[in-house]
Amino acid sequence: MTLEDIEDIVLVGDPPIRSQRDSGDVALRRRIKRNENNSRPNESSDTVVPVGDSIIPGTQQIYIKTWGCAHNNSDGEYMAGQLVAFGYRLTENRNEANLWILNSCTVKTPAEDHFRNLVEAATAKGVRVVAAGCVSQSRPSADYLSGVSVVGVQQIDRVVEVVEETLKGNTVRLLGTKKVNGKKLGGASLELPKIRRNRLIEILAVNTGCLNQCTYCKTKHARGELGSYPVAELVARATTAFTEGVVEVWLTSEDLGAYGRDLGVNLPELLRELVAVVPSWGRIRLGMTNPPYILEHLEAMAEILNDHRVYKFLHIPVQSGSDMVLSDMKREYSVAEFDRVVGFLRERVPGLTVATDIICGFPTETEADFLGSLELVRRHKFPSLFINQFFPRPGTPAARLPRVPTQEVKSRTRRMSELFRSYGTYSHQLGLRYNVLVSELSHDGRYYVGHNDSYDQVLVPPRPEFMGKLVRVRIVEVGKHFLKGEPLNLVSTEPWFSTEWCLSRSRSTSNPVRLCISLFLCFIFYLALKFCCFNQSSFSLLQFY
């Protein structure tokens, strides 16, 4: 195998050459030792040597660690799938691994600190490392990444090559952007092998990059400009996921609302196509969308969010309650526009859950600006609020601004947290009954976690028969971040026993043949139901909710 487009392969040692490649050699530059004065002797005399196979690829154990957003987690799942398909074994114990893949996040300084610490720990142990994710994409020249292989965010389909070469002692860096006819793609193929961390949840990245230039954000440096996957490819991936046993599809990206602007389509068009292939027992969860783009589609979004197959949930980060600060952040919307989005959708979508983000201590934020943020939270009483201290990210415009004193930033963060804890969000739901789709295990392992239509977190007893099913529950306890449900019964997930399924399928297709088939199934179901009514002793297990 000849790897002609491997970028920057550097020999970091002289492994014993046991055999030469049969079908071409990879030309590698020998590392040049420096003189005592740290100068490179005879710069033009770099020696090119072939490196042969000194290991058997696909026989090693690989440890994968991922930080950050759902998009990053999806990338990690794709890398895991390819490695296992090639024969590598995954391990949760990094001390047993021959190589670590560290999939980084650049949003916050603490996440990068954890990433750097593990890179340095691996280097100290002599363990091979492949850096992935947004930190290594945006800062491949960081000192602690010297001699470390890097697979870029749009090159995850090449992870097997990078791992193979790294295990041989080579440093490989693939950081390119995938393009066709000069146009950026959404990323690697959606048809790659994938190992889901949760077999019931498909994380589907619909686009990469964004259209904004937020002054505090480093992610744009890594993910770049907007690149969207075509609608047909996303629908095909979702369809496959449901046939593989998935019950939830999480749509993710750096900005879901910007989807398709590079392709001449928009988010509502994509969602309508996706909803049409979701079984009646399945769900779609929408990811983060910035206010400017959803403003254009409020009516359409309200209609889509009212479909029972879509969780009534939106993550709309506001970041500040001050127009001046929003302007300095280059957020491209006002507080009034954010209020309009939230107010309109809450009115049109009963039970809608809106999550948001607040940054405390942005460099130009005054006390008056911060009071505006407090008032915004007090006004909307968000049930889910991500409170972040401002951290200057290297290379961003905001990092060059004079900072608010650290103690003041901490004080504002504490005050915002106290406000959030001061109001209840779920007390009115005590005693209510919901159908809850169970798909996760709680962090402490004591409960299964499900979600109702509003994507409220509902804890239920960990009975194996509940996992992946709709369970009818009565709310018996409420907390700040959860509901606790008493199971009443399992809700049938067989679509053939649901009139709602027949009707939803007939509504969700414009194909005349499929429409006729759906209506015919409804008629058959009606006849069966009528038969049951005259045979009280038969079909007594049928229940309707």
The structure class reads: alpha/beta
**How far from one another are the termini?**
60 Å
pLDDT < 50 runs, ≥5 residues: 1-52, 495-510, 529-545
- Overall form: globular
Structure description:
The strands form 6 sheets. The protein has a 9-stranded mixed β-sheet, with helices on both faces. It has a 5-stranded mixed barrel with strand order 20-21-22-24-23. A 3-stranded parallel β-sheet has the order 12-15-16, with helices on both faces. By secondary structure, the protein is of the alpha/beta class. Helix content is 32%, strand content 21%. Helix 6 runs parallel beside helix 7 (267-275), helix 12 packs parallel to helix 13 (406-422) and helix 14 (499-507) packs antiparallel against helix 15. Residues 1-52, 495-510 and 529-545 have low confidence and may be disordered. The chain has helices at residues 70-86, 109-125, 133-138, 159-167, 219-223, 231-243, 267-275, 291-294, 298-305, 323-329, 335-348, 367-380, 406-422, 499-507, 512-534, and strands at 7-11, 27-30, 48-50, 61-66, 89-90, 99-104, 128-132, 149-151, 170-174, 179-180, 183-184, 201-205, 207-208, 227-228, 248-252, 283-285, 313-315, 353-360, 384-389, 433-441, 448-451, 457-460, 470-478, 483-491. The chain starts with 6 loop residues before the first strand and ends in an 11-residue tail after the last helix.
